[in-house]
Amino acid sequence: MGKVRNDDPSKLTDFQVLSFDVYSTLIDEPGGMFIGLQPLLSRFPSGNPYQNNRTYTLSHFQKYEKELQTSQPSLRYNELLPLAYKAFAASLNLPEPSQDEALSFGASIGSWPAFPDTVAALQSLKKRYKLVMLSNIDNDSIARTISGPLAGVDFDLVLTAQEIGSYKPDLRNFEYLVRRIKEELGIEKERILHTAQSLSCDQVPAKQMGMSSVWIDREGQDEKVRMLKEKGEVNFTWRFESMGEMAEAVEKET
C-alpha cells in the first residue's frame, strides 16, 4: 500500500506532527479485549461462536461500549468498560458478573499489547515528527500503556477523552487536538497528519475537520471503506497495513 490519492500533491515528509489513535492503531485492542472477555465467554458451552469468532464477539460487545460513550461522554473509559461488560453479559443471558470481575476487565487496558511493529516504527518516525496521542481513554490507562507496551517511545503530547470530556468521533476532540498542538508545539493544522485505524472514530471526523490523514488498515476493511468513500465520508491520502510499513515509506522519502 501507499499513496491512494493522486489529487493530493502532499508527501509524508511535508508534515511536522503525527497524531495517533492509540488502541487498534498502535495497541492490539482487539486481541487484548478478546482475552479480557474470556472469563465471561468461558461460561458458554464449548464451540459457541462467541468463543471462536473474535470479530463477531467484539462487534457485539462494542455496541454497548459505543452506546455508553455517547450517553455518558464524561465517564472515564476504565469505568465505562465494566458497565459495557455487564451489559454484554446480560445481552447473552449469562449470569451477572461480579463487580470484581467487571472491574478487572476495565483495569486490563494498560496490559493490552502493542502490535509487533509499533515501537520500532514510532522510534523511527520520532526522528522526523512530533508524536501526539488522541485517544478515547482515561489518564490512568494511557499512563500504563506508555510505561508498559509503548515503553521507549517519547510522545510530545498525550490527549485523552477524560481530559477533553467527550469521545471521538465528537469533533470537539479534534478541535482540542488542533488547538493544543498550536499552543504547545506551535504547529498549524495543515502540518498535522492524523494516523489511525478506526474509520468511524478517526477517518470520518478527520475529513470533517479538513485534516490530512493516513489509514492504518490492520483489519482489511475493504467493503466498509468502499461504502464510506462512495458517501464521501473519508478522504485519507495514504493507506498502510501497519505502522512499520508507514515508517518504511517515510524513510524512502528522505
Automatic annotation (TrEMBL):
<keyword id="KW-0378">Hydrolase</keyword>
<dbReference type="InterPro" id="IPR023214">
    <property type="entry name" value="HAD_sf"/>
</dbReference>
<dbReference type="InterPro" id="IPR051540">
    <property type="entry name" value="S-2-haloacid_dehalogenase"/>
</dbReference>
<dbReference type="Pfam" id="PF00702">
    <property type="entry name" value="Hydrolase"/>
</dbReference>
<dbReference type="InterPro" id="IPR036412">
    <property type="entry name" value="HAD-like_sf"/>
</dbReference>
<protein>
    <submittedName>
        <fullName>Haloacid dehalogenase-like hydrolase family protein</fullName>
    </submittedName>
</protein>
<dbReference type="GO" id="GO:0016787">
    <property type="term" value="F:hydrolase activity"/>
</dbReference>
